[in-house]
Amino acid sequence: MPASSSASASVRRHVLAALVTNEPGVLAQVAGMFAARGFNIDSLVVGRTDNPELSRMTIVVPGDDAVLEQVRKQLQKLVPVVKVVDYHEVPYVERDLVLVTVATGKPREDGQEDGRGATEYREEIASLATLFRAKVVDVAADRLMIELAGEESKLENFIELLKPYGILELARTGVIAMPRGMAPKARVAEEKKTVDAADLPPG
């Protein structure tokens, strides 16, 4: 039993950034590598950079240090990957974004029958959104759409509080991250290609 507890304690959440060439099929190669080797992905986000030839992937991977080391090595072997950065050992900023549509025109899912109508529920949900610094981006007769950006834990807490009202639809972007301005150098895998340092992910 103690060995099992120790093993579970060593499993951590790691955030990696990978700079890749902007060409068709790169995302499929990265996802295929994870699937073929049994690595789990909590989140994978890819987007363009200021260099049209390069894209940036932010990958959230659960696992111990040995798993992370294998992930880094396997990523670096892929031809389109220019550089891999690990944010585990440095202070960094991460953001996730959620759009969630919540019902306001029906009783709460917890079965409360207090006689309130859609207006009262809208005001209650809008007040909750204000507490989390979320934005109401669309209003209809029987629903609200809310936008919230922040760390994963903040989004999860907000979503849990909205569930009793009835979540109609939900979409999340996944995590993006960058090291803080005064942070020391993040751990970087060996670069395979010569590129301008300004084009590389921070760290």
From TrEMBL:
Pathway: Amino-acid biosynthesis; L-valine biosynthesis; L-valine from pyruvate: step 1/4; Amino-acid biosynthesis; L-isoleucine biosynthesis; L-isoleucine from 2-oxobutanoate: step 1/4
Keyword Cytoplasm among UniProt keywords: no
GO molecular function: acetolactate synthase activity; acetolactate synthase regulator activity
UniProt keyword Transferase, yes or no: yes
A biological process term (GO) from this entry: L-valine biosynthetic process
Alphabetical keyword list: Amino-acid biosynthesis, Branched-chain amino acid biosynthesis, Transferase
Record-annotated ACT domain positions: 15-90
A Gene Ontology term for the protein's cellular component: acetolactate synthase complex
Catalytic activity from the UniProt record: 2 pyruvate + H(+) = (2S)-2-acetolactate + CO2
E.C. number: 2.2.1.6
Known partners and oligomeric status: Dimer of large and small chains.
PANTHER family: ACETOLACTATE SYNTHASE SMALL SUBUNIT, MITOCHONDRIAL (PTHR31242:SF2)
Family membership noted in the UniProt record: Belongs to the acetolactate synthase small subunit family.
Stated name of the protein: acetolactate synthase
Organism: Phycisphaera mikurensis (strain NBRC 102666 / KCTC 22515 / FYK2301M01)
Primary gene name: ilvN
